[in-house]
Design brief:
- It is a single chain.
- The protein folds into two domains: about 220 residues, Spore Coat Polysaccharide Biosynthesis Protein SpsA, Chain A (Alpha-Beta Complex), CATH 3.90.550; about 120 residues, no CATH class.
- The protein has 15 helices and ten strands.
- The longest helix is centred in the last third of the chain and has 18 residues.
Length: about 350
Amino acid sequence: MDKKPFFSIIMACCDVEPYIREAVDSVMKQSFGDWECICGVEESKDRTEEILREIADSEPRIRIFTHPRSGSCSATRNIGTDMAQGEYVIFLDGDDTLAEESLARIADKINAAPGADLYPCAIVAYEEDSDKKEIRDNFSASSPAEMTGIEALLEINRLLVDKYCPMLQLTVFRREFLIENDLKCIYGLRRQDSEFTPRALYRAKRVVPLHEQFYLYRIHANSVSSIAKGAGYFLKDWVIITKSLLAFYGKVSQEDGFDSRVVPCWIRQWLSRLNYLLFLPKNQKLIPREKRVECLDFIFADGFDTYNRMMKSGSFSQRLAAYHVRMFVKHPALRWAADLFFRGYFLLSG
């Protein structure tokens, strides 16, 4: 490819035969043609790869690579980012689509404010069976037009946008920013967004929200969000996410210029969620105590030093909850008391 494209669209494809033509068509029909589409096909049981190769035979802007089945989009996103030659990266799943003319609109807005690391946009999430639609944007119309990554993180926290995790698909990334900061998804992790996005936001020097509804996110019977069942369905993922983000805090909190304003946000978004997953009364009933012990033993295998340092910035109730988390891990005979505390804790907190 002689000229580097403006956009590199990295498409994760695994068993998406019913949707893949529509996904690729939504890219090929864009009036803005300065793009490449890198399709990563995980080992599939249907005709996903065959269909993609048929399309790519007549479209040189589409490149295909294959890799073993991993259970998530992480491998495709990591490999695709390394392969990409475009200035900006968009992550697109093979069962979703781009809105008409969206690349042209985004390119115009980027050119009006070039050089930012992240350009958060908006998606339209729709349920295939009911046609119910919801617009998701992590920023409001009143949010600043430009922020640092830390300011963006604080703004998200202020807006209480925790109904869903900040999806990778909401954001257009400057590729060199991803490469320079070695921003990769954890292999096999299904909830990559919740682990990746906080790190990307923290490292970003410039964030320019575009509020552009460019991505159509399809929720169907076989999508990950639809087949999730029970309190423990994503438990392993959240445990890995929490351990990784605690390690990230441990690293960046020792760097010069660390902005401690982010710590209360991270406590709320990471550690309070862990308490919810493991100690909410209904989850105590659904997830055996032995399993919850196993999860916390994994997270705190290296001790509580980082956790304790982080929790110094927590509220009184959060620090009290942290005390009982430590009790649950370190004192087997008192686990019943920690469980009892959290029943009252969640009752009082509503």
